[in-house]
């Protein structure tokens, strides 16, 4: 990529802009928010994110338009990554910003609102979860193993790292097939092995279809999100999103 050379260890094109912390976002605003006739400002950045003239005019009402554009960008574009951001800054000749932010973003570990524990036979429901929680007003970040983990990594090692250190919570998609999955069994038991204070808010079991087998005993002490209940289905996604959004 244009902004950083091959010496950088981080693949910025794989990191969503949502991973940028508050300090980095605020610093971007300090650089880009002031209208500038000499250097590119937030409007030039906005144009490069494919916003139209009228859309850019509507961002003028915000006190921090740069921050608002960064917040909205992932819902508009699939390539809203740190790599794309750095390339845009280089393209509009704001290398000064790139150099200033380099120490802050050089080692960003991607973090997520939730790790989704599921078996392959339940992948269609996981796709629906992505549509309902990531691509709507909730704008949550889900860690879906088949999508977000590169091939060749050790399943057990990367699962443990993600669950313990990089995901705020863990959604367990319960089904008859889940009960037969060694990988799901490991992920669930690992999450439960964490400190009692952490595990009480980490695990959220979700049942999305009827089951023939007995519900797992190790999850019975946790409140279930039941997609199969017609009485509560209308607020299922909002309820789940709220639980995943809690601090």
UniProtKB/TrEMBL annotation:
- Outline what the protein does: Adapter protein involved in the Toll-like receptor and IL-1 receptor signaling pathway in the innate immune response.
Has UniProt tagged this entry with the keyword Protein biosynthesis? Answer: no
The answer to whether keyword Signal applies is no
State its location(s).
Cytoplasm
Instruction: Please state every residue range assigned to the domain named Death.
Output: 27-105
Origin organism is: Polypterus senegalus (Senegal bichir)
Phosphoserine: which positions carry it? 195
Ordered alphabetically, the record's keywords are: Cytoplasm, Immunity, Inflammatory response, Innate immunity
Protein name from the UniProt record: MYD88 protein
């Amino acid at each position: 990529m244009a902004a950083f050379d091959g010496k950088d260890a981080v693949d910025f094109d794989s990191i969503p802009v949502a991973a940028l912390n508050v300090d980095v976002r605020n610093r971007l605003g300090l650089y880009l928010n002031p209208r500038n006739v000499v250097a590119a400002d937030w409007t030039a950045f906005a144009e490069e994110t494919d916003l139209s003239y009228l859309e850019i005019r509507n961002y003028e009402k915000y006190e921090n338009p740069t921050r608002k554009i960064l917040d909205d960008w992932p819902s508009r574009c699939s390539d809203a990554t740190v790599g794309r951001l750095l390339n845009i800054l280089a393209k509009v000749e704001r290398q000064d910003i790139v150099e200033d932010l380099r120490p802050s973003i050089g080692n960003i570990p991607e973090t997520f609102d939730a790790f989704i524990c599921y078996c392959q036979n339940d992948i269609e429901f996981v796709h629906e979860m992505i549509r309902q929680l990531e691509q709507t007003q909730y704008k949550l970040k889900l860690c879906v193993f088949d999508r977000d983990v590169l091939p060749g990594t050790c399943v057990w090692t990367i699962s443990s790292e993600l669950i313990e250190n990089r995901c705020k919570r863990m959604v367990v998609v319960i089904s008859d097939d889940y009960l037969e999955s060694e990988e799901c069994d490991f992920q669930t038991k690992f999450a439960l092995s964490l400190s009692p204070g952490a595990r009480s808010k980490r695990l959220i079991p979700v049942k999305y279809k009827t089951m023939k087998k007995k519900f797992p005993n190790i999850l019975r002490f946790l409140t279930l999100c039941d997609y199969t209940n017609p009485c509560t289905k209308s607020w299922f996604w909002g309820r789940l999103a709220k639980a995943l959004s809690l601090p």
